[in-house]
Amino acid sequence: SLSLVLKTSLSALLNARTHRLGPQLNEHQKIFNHALKPKNNGDHFLLYAASNCVSYREDALVALSRLGTVHRGGQCGGGLPEGSTQMIKAPHFVDRDSGGNANFEILQFYRFALVMENQQSDGYVTEKILNAFLGGSIPIYFGTTEIFEMFNPNAFIYYDIDNPQPALDRVAYLESNKTAYESMLNDEPILADGHHTIERFFSFGYFGEGTLGRRIRSMMGYESPMYHFGIL
Known about the structure:
10 helices, about 10% strand, alpha/beta, single chain, six-stranded parallel β-sheet
C-alpha cells in the first residue's frame, strides 16, 4: 500500500539522520508543523541530484534549464554542457559515495528541487519529495498521483511527463513573480489534510513497540502529551 511504502522510506530517512539530531527541534517535525516549515535562502534556481539517468528525468532537466541555470548534484545532467549558462556542478553538493550528507541539507540554497521518481507505480513514494520539503525547496515531482492524497498539491509542482508544459509554465511564472513564489513557499502547508494525513500515512504502529518504533514516535511528537491532547 502507499502508506506502507511511504512509512518504509520515511523510516530509512529517519534512521539515516538520527545520529545528527540533537535534543532540540529535529528536522522531521517540520513536515508536520506548518509554523516550522523550512524555507530556502533563494540563492540558486534548481538542484537535480541523480545518478540513475532515467530518460524522462533527463528530458525534464533540459526543459527546465531553459528557465534558469540548473545545478547538477549527481552523475546525471541531461547531456547539458557543464559550466554553461544552462548547467553547472552544484557547489554545495558532496556525492554520497564520497561520504556526503543528505540532499536536504544543501537544498536550503535552491528555490526548486527536481525530485522525480524513477518509476510511476501505485503505492511507490520514496524520500525524494520529503528531502525537498525538508530543505525548504519547492519540489518538482513526478510519480504516482496518489501523492496528492499525502501532500498539499499547492505546495509542490507535479511534472506530468506526458504533458509537461503546465509545470514548466508554473515554474516560469513563479520565477518571474517573487510574491507568488513566496506565497507558495510560506503559506501553503506541506500535508494534504493536516492531522488526517498524519493518521493515515504517518501513524507508526507499523514499526511496533520496539526501540525503533518508540524512537520514531518520539521524534515526531507522537509520545508527547501535547500530541494526544491535540496541541501538536
